[in-house]
């Protein structure tokens, strides 16, 4: 409901709903997981349509993406202080927080195009062992840039690591067909084929990958 208030009315409405939620939980001891409680809080905050929008699934995609973005940058616990995409998790002494803020101000992060930022966050999720989260963030890019090789390769990796082997195989076969010299695509295709039991089809790709990059021949 708090996210929905921001999505629909901005920070002022969100603050009013947030105040109502906190008061209901900590002061009035009401059940804030109940739809009728949230509907009353929203109405009192001037967000009359909040209950209806919530029951219709409003802000679910917004919250899901916010959680994934937080996970990608390292938000694991509360409290976590986030400045310019960098996270400081847990409670810390004032001097630690001061150094974190000072460094963020002194070394501001270069602003990236939204597409590049989304791609990096998706890759971070894959690196953290969340291939399905990676695919969720990638969805928009896969729709808008279906021919972008970087997007396609990351999607293939995520499909592979989430055991969606047919999708991984299809994507990797297309990537290898377009660029036969891509050793990593061949390696991953070979592994996908092996996991599908297609050992004879996998062997040539694995041999070629190892010939192009000897390090790939050392992996099991």
Strands in their spatial order, largest beta sheet: 1-2
| Beta-strand content bin | under 5%
User: Could you give the count of β-strands?
Assistant: 2
Q: Work out the helicity level.
A: 55-70%
Q: Span between N and C termini?
A: 48 Å
Low-pLDDT stretches: none
Molecular shape? elongated
The tally of helices reads: 11
**Structural class by secondary-structure content:** mainly alpha
Largest sheet: 2 strands, antiparallel
Mean pLDDT rating: 94
Please specify the SSE layout and strand pairing.
Blueprint: H1 2-27, H2 35-44, H3 50-55, H4 60-73, E1 80-83, E2 86-89, H5 94-106, H6 114-127, H7 131-144, H8 149-161, H9 165-178, H10 183-195, H11 199-212
Antiparallel strand pairs: 1-2
Helix pairs in contact: 1-2, 4-6, 6-7, 6-8, 7-8, 8-9, 9-10, 10-11
Short description:
This protein is mostly helical and 220 residues long.
